[in-house]
Design goal:
Blueprint lengths: L1 H36 L5 E7 L2 E7 L16 E2 L4 H14 L29 H5 L10 H7 L10 H9 L14 H15 L3 H10 L20 E2 L5 E2 L8 H4 L2 E2 L1 H12 L4 H9 L4 E2 L4 E2 L4 E4 L4 E8 L4 E7 L4 E7 L4 H16 L1
Antiparallel strand pairs: 1-2, 1-12, 3-6, 4-5, 7-8, 8-9, 9-10, 10-11, 11-12
């Protein structure tokens, strides 16, 4: 009997291994084919299925640096940073420092003075699900001023003036993507923990998960990719500033798979927090939103995802908790169409 059980266990292990290898080959084939059609765009992909990691990558760090991209190559994850920030907010909820339905008023830095029309109106969850109605920074204007570092001119004083001069909320309760919302969430976290956002994300995500290649203020490393605009021009990585909680983390496929593993594990602090972020906080005919994450549901699956775009890179993270898989796609060009096409093909071919 014991021999039979051992044989069954061995067969199951072999079956899972072969299944994982099959998935890996299929995804690698999709990425390889895309790279052949777009040889100017470097790609790094990491995915996890039933706790088994797989990676594939194509292209070079840059035209000048012929070192091949791999799972440890550094990219801007851009607005994927927002799901890290929302996870930190959810961890603060677990730490009993805040509630998702708390009004933001008493948690903002003292420099903010909300107009009477805004008091006891905006909730933490409103900021995190992009329905606060607050004004946002004008990216088009910022890009025109400094196309390489558009957020460099955004300061704490800029934000304070923007919020304090707001007398009415525009479309409160309706979805309107917001950089300001996540910048404020970062400042709220700093008040809750009496530490900088940099310290908080290191203490509660980067260090516990040993994500050694997930970078904040300092990112001048040898394995950094070079970003490119849609027309191929070189784009700098964004420098760290007050808008960091909305989109300034740098990372790689290996570390983001580590993060996905923690998210899919309900026993980790990150996993417990992720479950809070997956609750529906906003819904209309076009979308459902958790805290920082888009929720996509069909008749068989519920997918949680977040995209990221800097001036020179595009990325997407996606996972299915019920079926225990997740994927990160990183491109060294701003190319949202290519990124989405890759995810769609992988999902339809492998995970659906």
């Amino acid at each position: 009997m014991k021999t039979s059980l051992k044989l069954l266990a061995a067969l199951l292990l072999l079956s899972n291994f072969c299944f994982g290898q099959d998935i890996s080959k299929k995804i690698d084939s999709i990425i390889k084919d895309s790279y052949k059609k777009n040889p100017e765009v470097g790609i790094s992909v990491g995915f996890i299925k039933n706790n088994e990691e797989h990676f594939t990558a194509y292209g070079n760090l840059s035209a000048e640096n012929q070192v091949e991209i791999n799972k440890k190559s550094i990219f801007e994850i851009a607005s994927i940073t927002k799901i890290l920030t929302s996870n930190l907010i959810a961890q603060a909820v677990i730490d009993n420092k805040i509630k998702t339905d708390d009004y933001i008023d008493r948690f903002l830095p003292k420099a903010y003075v909300l107009h009477e029309n805004l008091k006891n109106k905006i909730k933490i969850s409103d900021l995190a699900s992009h329905q606060s109605g607050l004004p946002d920074i004008d990216f088009a204007k910022l890009i025109a001023l400094n196309p390489q570092q558009p957020v460099s001119s955004v300061t704490e004083e800029t934000l304070t003036s923007l919020i304090n001069n707001c007398t009415e909320l525009t479309d409160y309760g309706k979805y309107r993507y917001s950089t300001i919302g996540y910048t404020l969430l970062g400042q709220i976290l700093e008040g809750l923990y009496n530490k900088s956002y940099d310290e908080i994300i290191r203490n509660k995500i980067i260090q516990p998960l040993k994500m050694k290649n997930t970078l904040t203020k300092e990112f001048d490393v040898k394995n950094r990719t070079v970003g490119h605009s849609p027309n191929g021009d070189i784009q700098e990585f964004f420098n760290w500033n007050v808008t960091a909680p909305a989109g300034l983390i740098k990372s790689n496929a290996a570390d983001m798979v580590t993060y996905l593993k923690a998210v899919l594990n309900k026993e980790t602090a990150v996993g417990k927090a992720a479950i809070i972020t997956e609750k529906i906080f906003y819904k209309d005919q076009k979308r459902e939103m958790g805290l920082g994450t888009n929720i996509v549901t069909d008749d068989k699956n519920t997918i949680y995802m977040k995209t990221g775009d800097s001036m020179g890179q595009s990325s997407i993270i996606c996972y299915n908790r019920a079926k225990n898989w997740g994927i990160i796609i990183l491109l060294n060009q701003r190319n949202s169409k290519m990124r989405q096409n890759l995810l769609n093909e992988i999902y339809d071919t492998v995970f659906k």
